């Protein structure tokens, strides 16, 4: 009997140097040559998810990716103290400067080349001076990646761009120095033909500068789009506390990094702070705002013995919590991991796009060579042959083919996570087009994650509703409780921009409410099921989570939802 096969391990790699879907196909193909290894590479996230036998070390996977002409490394562990790698947004200024210089040099060249009225004596030599830095320095990222791909036996979109720039700039040099285009007074009228009526060769410096200008612009927009689609994971990461106040056995508190928190440690959560990790309340009572974690708009009252979730906001009193889960075992970490796995997968449409892009670049190169050979073989003008071949190269960049699908999936899964919708994978998202019925297994109602006042009831013999709301909003301005914030916001809107009155002697009692003096009134905002209950004239069958009382027995009940 053969020994059972060990379960495959899964490793994630951060891959650098990819520019198009052809790069994705090359990495997946190289990794797939290792027995038992399969890989899914995502161009938009710059990550590779590799399934491999346990006896295949990560170093071997990294070596294969590096041998293919790219960089690769495992992602930094959450507890790493090293500075994080620059994000796409942080890397934008370098590409932005290159794009700015390229644009400043390219626009005059394109204008002079395409508008005969602007062409003065020796204009073509000025264009050459302006175009040379663009063809060399401005296009250097394309030349470098194309050369790297050539050394590793691969062709990418950068190969097409680099060849297009070199061919158009090289032909222009030939035309200027040997083809008669450098003569003083030469003009180049707009024409669909590759040469002037007198046989003088055209220069194509506008193509040599226009191609890198437009592709650099597209790359910058792509980088910003990728950075934007990762906002969901960054938002989830911001929910996690960076430091925590640990309370030792002798009662002293010390502030430590969240990475040093251990299961069983007791930590303190003050009003307005986030719960550092999943745990159990051992002392204190408060209301937790879980809207950013679970989407529930109503605050959750907690006390000794209550379970709490890391990332929740403490809206009331002081809590002492015992840590029950830390690091990757917390609910917030599992949510983040789920979103990451969803964004790393590929939908059927994306796999099809990557498969097409994998053979697209070699096919375009073959077509360009065929066009060049056809023109020359048919006895055509060499300039016309070069022009046709360059046209095939520069119009066939598969940018959208390889990036549009993963970027759209990134945006969808990321926005869904922000709204509380977690997608297990792109296949599930893609199947939504066949959904005609949605069944919600959820108690209560769907909310937008924030409470609001929808009804106000006052005693018939008391203050008017507007005045009662004004007093309630004034005292709730100092409250951190979600109900208090809802009442204060409602009161501000009811004031039509006017400021709410000030409050003196403000006091907040955890689990009960707030009190204060407003405009001569002693105002108390309390729970309807608190010690005082609701006043008799107000219907006790209504659900009113807040009541207001004053020395003149004026009462208010509202329904924030």
From TrEMBL:
Residues 9-73 form the HMA domain. One of its GO terms (molecular function) is P-type divalent copper transporter activity. It holds the Pfam family HMA. It comes from the Bacteria. Residues 541-553 have a biased composition (Polar residues). It is a multi-pass membrane protein. The chain crosses the membrane at residues 99-117, 123-140, 160-181, 201-221, 355-378, 384-412. One of its GO terms (cellular component) is plasma membrane. Keywords: ATP-binding, Membrane, Metal-binding, Nucleotide-binding, Translocase, Transmembrane, Transmembrane helix, Transport. Residues 524-561 are annotated as: Disordered. GO terms for biological process: copper ion homeostasis. The keyword Nucleotide-binding applies. It is found in: Cell membrane. The keyword 4Fe-4S does not apply. Its main location: membrane. Belongs to the cation transport ATPase (P-type) (TC 3.A.3) family. Type IB subfamily. This is Heavy metal translocating P-type ATPase. The lineage of its organism: Bacteria, Bacillati, Actinomycetota, Actinomycetes, Kitasatosporales.
